[in-house]
Design brief:
Elements: E1 14-15, E2 17-22, E3 28-33, E4 36-41, E5 44-51, H1 55-63, E6 65-70, H2 76-84, H3 92-96, E7 100-102, E8 109-111, E9 116-127, E10 131-143, H4 156-159, E11 162-165, E12 170-173
Antiparallel strand pairs: 1-11, 2-3, 2-6, 4-5, 5-10, 6-9, 7-8, 9-10, 11-12
């Protein structure tokens, strides 16, 4: 029997996005975000949610652009740090030993050392309550060549992203292959 635990912020899996922005002085900043995901296929769009108190919130409002760098398992420490410190106080790129790269298509930096990046322009901002939802239209996706399949699309087994678990405040790797999507369920179709 299921037990009610009330209305809370539990959902699995939660991504680990490293959001890149510039401040008013063009200083690059990164922020860890777990509340977000793909929200539209045409135009291709993604969402992220932030509290108004964050440094990144102000950067997003001012620049109307951001990147999402996908950290690999091997960079969990750097990704965690991006969510602990504030860019108001420190240069998170420098402290984490990461390299900012200026996007050529949006006014935001991305993380050179991470294998995949989405470059987005802000198209919608929705004030929800404590958090604000930013919708970004994906302008381009860049992926390290050795992390692509032979069909030229990102390979999750090579990128090695990880997820965040709210219950234990922990990170988890992505598990093994289970079954082909849009195929295994066909056995149940009549």
């Amino acid at each position: 029997m299921k037990k009610s635990i009330g209305a809370r912020t539990f959902l699995y899996p939660m991504p680990v996005f490293i959001v890149g922005t510039y401040d008013d002085n063009k200083k690059p900043n990164i922020c860890a975000v777990a509340w977000g995901g793909i929200c539209c296929s045409k135009p291709p769009s993604v969402t992220i949610c932030l509290r108004q108190a964050t440094y990144t919130y102000g950067n997003l409002k001012a620049r109307q652009a951001f990147t999402i760098s996908i950290p690999p398992e091997s960079r969990v420490k750097e990704a965690d740090y991006a969510g602990l410190a504030s860019g108001r106080d420190v240069d998170k790129f420098a402290v984490a030993g990461l390299t900012p790269v200026a996007s050529e298509v949006v006014d935001a930096p991305f993380v050179k050392e991470f294998p995949m990046v989405l470059e987005c322009k802000v198209t919608h901002i929705v004030e929800i309550g404590l958090h604000t939802l930013f919708v970004g239209e994906i302008q381009d996706i860049k992926v390290e060549e050795d992390c692509l399949t032979d069909k030229g699309i990102p390979d999750i087994t090579k990128i090695k992203p990880f997820s965040f678990a709210m219950d234990s405040m922990s990170y988890y790797s992505i598990g093994p292959f289970l079954a082909p999507a849009f195929a295994i369920g066909k056995d149940l179709m009549k």
